[in-house]
C-alpha cells in the first residue's frame, strides 16, 4: 500500500500530489531529489530506497518522476506496477505524458488518482472502464450517472451489457528474436520474447479457455508430446483477467477478457536460436582512400516461409562519401545521418541467398580496423505464419450463457528484436574487383 503519490519534474518540484493515508509528512518529498542525485553520482541508482523510515519508490517517464511514499512494509513490486499503470492511464487520456500535460489537466488527474487508489490500495486501473465515467471534459463529471458495474464488480476490467452483431476473437502470437553474433560467427546470445495479443469483440460476459502446446502441462497430464513440439515457457506474465490459481494448478489459461484490444500474456524462451537471417561481411579498407564491402545475406528458414520488409543496416565510417552499390536484389541506400548503408529486400524467401557490394571514398586518414569500436550490423524483418519456438494455439474455447457461436482467428508472426551481428576485422589486401 502507498501512503502518498507525487508527480515531479526533473528538478524535483512537485507538480501534483495525493496524500491517501496521512501517516507521512508531505515534506518528506523534499529529500527525494538529493537522494536520487547522490545515488546517481555513486552509480548505484535504484527504483526504491529507504530514508529516515520512509520508503521511496519511483519511476521516470519522459521529463517526469512518478513517486510513491510509504512507511509500511509494502510489496514494492505492486507499488511500482501501479506507477506504471498510472503512466499508461495518463498517456491514454492525454496522448503524451509530460510536464505540460500534467499542468493542463489538474482536475481530471485528481479524479483519476481518487478512482485508481483508495486509502493507499490500488483499485480500478483499466483505462476503458475509467473512461466510461471520468471524461476528458472534467466539468461534465457532476452530471455523470453512477459508475459502471465493473467498478464494483469482481470483474473490474469489463463492463456488463456489451453487445456485438458479429462475435469474433482475433489472437496474434508475436515472437521477437534477440541475437548477438561475434565477428568470428559465433552466437554469443540468443533468446525469444513472445507476446499473445487479443482483440475481443464478444457480447455479454464470456469465459475463454486457451490451450497451448505447453510442455509442463503435457507432462503433468501424462499426454504424449511426440506428435508435435512442446515448448517450455519461462518468465510467463499474464493480464490480470487470467485466473492465476487455475494456471498454477493445471496450466489452464482461463479468463473473462476485457473488451477490445489487450495483451493476454508474455513469455521468454532462453534457447539457442539458429539465426533466421545470416549476414556475412567482407570488408576491405584502403586507409585515407576508400573502403569496400561485400555482404552476403542468407535466409536460414524453411522455403515455404518468406521474410517481409527485410532491412540490413551495415555501419560505415562517419566520413565516408561517394557511395556506389551493386546488389542481386532489393534497394541499397546510404544513410549518412546514421553512418550506415541500408539494404532493403521487400520479400526474402527461405533458403535464398543474395549478394550486395558497396564502395565508399574515405577523404581522411582514420583507423577503422578496431572491431570493438565498430557498431554491429543490424537486421530487421517480419516473417508471417511462422514462430521460431514452435508455439501453437491448440484450442480457444468461448463459452457465454446466451450460447452464441463466436469465430476465433489466430495469426503467427516472428520478427526481429535486438538482432545484431558484429563486423569482421578489415583486410588490407586487394582481393575485391572494383564496382
UniProtKB/TrEMBL annotation:
Gene3D superfamilies, per database record:
3.30.450.60, Mu homology domain, subdomain B
Where found in the cell?
Cytoplasmic vesicle, Clathrin-coated vesicle membrane
- The MHD domain extends over 166-422
Origin: domain of life: Eukaryota
Q: Which UniProt keywords apply?
A: Cytoplasmic vesicle, Membrane, Protein transport, Transport
PROSITE patterns on file: CLAT_ADAPTOR_M_1, CLAT_ADAPTOR_M_2, MHD
- Record has Ion transport as a keyword: no
Q: Name the GO terms of the biological process aspect.
A: intracellular protein transport; vesicle-mediated transport
What coarse category fits the chief subcellular location reported for this protein? membrane
The reply on keyword Protein transport is yes
Give the record's GO CC terms. Answer: clathrin adaptor complex; clathrin-coated vesicle membrane
Please name the PANTHER family in this protein's record: AP COMPLEX SUBUNIT MU (PTHR10529)
Similarity field: Belongs to the adaptor complexes medium subunit family.
Protein name, as recorded? AP-1 adaptor complex subunit mu, putative
Amino acid at each position: 500500500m502507498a501512503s502518498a503519490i507525487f508527480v515531479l519534474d526533473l528538478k524535483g518540484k512537485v507538480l501534483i500530489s495525493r496524500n491517501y493515508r496521512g501517516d507521512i509528512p508531505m515534506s518528506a518529498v523534499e529529500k527525494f531529489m538529493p537522494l536520487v542525485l547522490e545515488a546517481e553520482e555513486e552509480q548505484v541508482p535504484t527504483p526504491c530506497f529507504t530514508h529516515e523510515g520512509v520508503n521511496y519508490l519511483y519511476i521516470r517517464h519522459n521529463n517526469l518522476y512518478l513517486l510513491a511514499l510509504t512507511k509500511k512494509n509494502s510489496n514494492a513490486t505492486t507499488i511500482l506496477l501501479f506507477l506504471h499503470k498510472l503512466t499508461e492511464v495518463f498517456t491514454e487520456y492525454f496522448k503524451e505524458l509530460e510536464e505540460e500535460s500534467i499542468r493542463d489537466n489538474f482536475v481530471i488527474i485528481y479524479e483519476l488518482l481518487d478512482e485508481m487508489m483508495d486509502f493507499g490500495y490500488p483499485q480500478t486501473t483499466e483505462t476503458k472502464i475509467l473512461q466510461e465515467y471520468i471524461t476528458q471534459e472534467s466539468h461534465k463529471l457532476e452530471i455523470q450517472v453512477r459508475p459502471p458495474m465493473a467498478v464494483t464488480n469482481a470483474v473490474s476490467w469489463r463492463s456488463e451489457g456489451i453487445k456485438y452483431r458479429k462475435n469474433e476473437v482475433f489472437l496474434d502470437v508475436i515472437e521477437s528474436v534477440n541475437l548477438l553474433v561475434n565477428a568470428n560467427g559465433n552466437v554469443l546470445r540468443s533468446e525469444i520474447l513472445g507476446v499473445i495479443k487479443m482483440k475481443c469483440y464478444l457480447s455479454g460476459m464470456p469465459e475463454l479457455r486457451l490451450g497451448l502446446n505447453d510442455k509442463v502441462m503435457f507432462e503433468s497430464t501424462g499426454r504424449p508430446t511426440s506428435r508435435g513440439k512442446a515448448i517450455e515457457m519461462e518468465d510467463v506474465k499474464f493480464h490480470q483477467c487470467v485466473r492465476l490459481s487455475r494456471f498454477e494448478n493445471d496450466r489452464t489459461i482461463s479468463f473473462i477478457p476485457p473488451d477490445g484490444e489487450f495483451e493476454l500474456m508474455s513469455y521468454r524462451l532462453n534457447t539457442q536460436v539458429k539465426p533466421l537471417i545470416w549476414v556475412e561481411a567482407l570488408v576491405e579498407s584502403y586507409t585515407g582512400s576508400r573502403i569496400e564491402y561485400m555482404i552476403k545475406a542468407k535466409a536460414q528458414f524453411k522455403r515455404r516461409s518468406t521474410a517481409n520488409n527485410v532491412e540490413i543496416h551495415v555501419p560505415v565510417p562517419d566520413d565516408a562519401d561517394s557511395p556506389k552499390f551493386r546488389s542481386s536484389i532489393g534497394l541499397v541506400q546510404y544513410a549518412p545521418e546514421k553512418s550506415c548503408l541500408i539494404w532493403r529486400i521487400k520479400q526474402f524467401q527461405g533458403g535464398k541467398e543474395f549478394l550486395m557490394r558497396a564502395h565508399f571514398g574515405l577523404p581522411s586518414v582514420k583507423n577503422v580496423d578496431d572491431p570493438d569500436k565498430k557498431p554491429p550490423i543490424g537486421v530487421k524483418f517480419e516473417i508471417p505464419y511462422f514462430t521460431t519456438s514452435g508455439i501453437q494455439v491448440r484450442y480457444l474455447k468461448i463459452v457465454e450463457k446466451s450460447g452464441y457461436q463466436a469465430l476465433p482467428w489466430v495469426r503467427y508472426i516472428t520478427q526481429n528484436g535486438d538482432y545484431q551481428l558484429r563486423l569482421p576485422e578489415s583486410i588490407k589486401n586487394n582481393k575485391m574487383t572494383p564496382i
